[in-house]
């Protein structure tokens, strides 16, 4: 038979588990262009083999839905932007995810990347060359 402290302990354990899961970058995110402030796409961030990846699952501008990644390097050259994996191989490091790359499908350039949650529904996405000081940051919004 369970006593009150065991029940309370279980309730707290499940609440903490939910909080930790809620603080994950995994999920769907609306990308916001840092120059125009306009929403551009939906990226689904997922984990595979302990690494974080992000794939474009929707393009919000109907005229750009069929765009190809003409400037992309290697295997991604001339592939549809829709369905492209743009975040590659990030690992969790404290409150950040880093040590991976992000692809800008417009320029075709690969940048070093780090992600950091701001609260539960905002994601700072930074792409940079060399040191993180030299780069651009976008804030993406979680899709509910």
TrEMBL record:
Domain DUF2147, chain residue ranges per copy: 27-142
Domain of life: Bacteria
Alphabetized Pfam families for the sequence: DUF2147
PANTHER family in the cross-refs: BLL5882 PROTEIN, BLR1215 PROTEIN
Name used for this protein in its record: DUF2147 domain-containing protein
Species per Swiss-Prot/TrEMBL record: Flavobacterium rhamnosiphilum
């Amino acid at each position: 038979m369970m006593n009150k402290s065991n029940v309370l302990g279980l309730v707290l354990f499940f609440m903490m588990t939910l909080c930790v899961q809620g603080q994950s970058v995994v999920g769907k995110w609306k990308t916001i262009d840092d120059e125009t402030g306009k929403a551009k796409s939906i990226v689904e961030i997922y984990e595979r083999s302990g690494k974080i990846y992000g794939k474009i699952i929707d393009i919000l501008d109907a005229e750009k839905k069929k765009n190809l990644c003409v400037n992309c390097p290697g295997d991604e050259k001339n592939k549809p932007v829709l369905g492209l994996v743009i975040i590659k191989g990030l690992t969790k490091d404290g409150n950040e995810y880093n040590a991976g790359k992000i692809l800008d499908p417009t320029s075709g350039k690969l940048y070093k990347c780090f992600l950091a949650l701001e609260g539960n529904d905002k994601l700072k996405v930074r792409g940079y060359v060399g040191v993180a000081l030299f780069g651009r940051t976008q804030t993406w919004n979680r899709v509910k």
